[in-house]
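User: Just a sanity check before I run the rest of the batch. Below are the structure tokens for the first item. I only need the designed sequence back.
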């Protein structure tokens, strides 16, 4: 059977969202205490920032790869993680002011009360 690469691309575009939704429905629940951190890694010779959130047992909640390490990137990551899971009670972060500002901004914008631990 011969299949063109554009056909495979169309299949990926069409079937990836329903598969992703089905997988997330059956994912185990996330605890209400998160640890959020970022690091920089080298991908194809370019430095990128990897934002990652884990629960108290070390299981990955979500991640985001960005070119910038600033408040908009931290806000984008936090919004993505909360949209997929739910609002945590506490988030433990390092001394990054961008992450703290993103959490405070999310609390103000959505009326939540996420506790920041450093």
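Assistant: Here's the designed sequence for the first item:
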């Amino acid at each position: 059977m011969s299949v063109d690469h554009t056909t495979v691309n169309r299949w990926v575009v069409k079937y990836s969202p329903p598969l992703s939704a089905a997988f997330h429905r059956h994912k185990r629940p996330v605890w209400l205490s998160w640890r959020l951190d970022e690091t920089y890694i080298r991908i194809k010779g370019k430095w990128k920032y990897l934002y990652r959130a884990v629960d108290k047992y070390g299981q990955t909640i979500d991640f985001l790869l960005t070119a910038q390490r600033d408040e908009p990137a931290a806000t984008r990551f936090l919004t993505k993680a909360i949209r997929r899971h739910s609002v945590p009670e506490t988030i433990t972060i390092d001394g990054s002011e961008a992450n703290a500002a993103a959490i405070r901004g999310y609390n103000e914008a959505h009326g939540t009360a996420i506790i920041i631990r450093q």
